[in-house]
Specification:
Ubiquitin-like protease family profile domain-containing protein, 18% strand, alpha/beta, Papain-like_cys_pep_sf, 5 helices
Length: 146
């Protein structure tokens, strides 16, 4: 994630461990740990772990769209991600109730272990504004090493 921040301009990375805390104030303090809420950041990216399963999101402040992604396409996980962004991230960037949420459904995990790889792939595709191609499934072993 920090590599993505270096590759793309004005990208903030949320500290992934924020979601694990119970208190909202601690979540907010932890989320800003890597400078994600800096006003110069146009896009904010994050991965969070939900019960040993990784999910991702990207909040685009320019377009006021938050893209949410669960490699298993589980509605409950996507609802948790949306709630997390609404309660922890939006208030810190002054965007409460201003965002549209779009679920990424063009990539789906096909095994039991690649959720983290697909989260990073989807985030990079969103940041680079590149289209999804099913041929990416064939290069998963390479992507894992990257």
């Amino acid at each position: 994630m920090l590599a993505l921040q270096q590759m793309y301009a004005n990208v903030g990375v949320v500290n992934p461990s924020y979601h694990d805390f119970a208190g909202l104030s601690v979540k907010k303090k932890t989320a800003v740990g890597f400078g994600a809420m800096d006003p110069s950041n146009d896009r904010i990216i994050a991965v969070i772990c939900l019960d040993h399963h990784w999910v991702a999101y990207m909040l685009d402040k320019r377009t006021q769209v938050c893209y949410t992604f669960d490699p298993l396409q589980m509605k409950a996980n996507l609802a948790t991600v949306k709630s997390s962004v609404q309660n922890v991230i939006e208030p810190q960037v002054g965007m409460q109730n201003k965002n549209t949420y779009k679920e990424i459904d063009w990539c789906k995990q096909r095994d039991n272990s690649s959720w983290g790889v697909w989260c990073l792939v989807v985030l990079e595709l969103l940041l680079s504004e590149s289209p999804w191609a099913d041929s990416l499934y064939k290069v998963q072993p390479y992507l894992r090493m990257r």
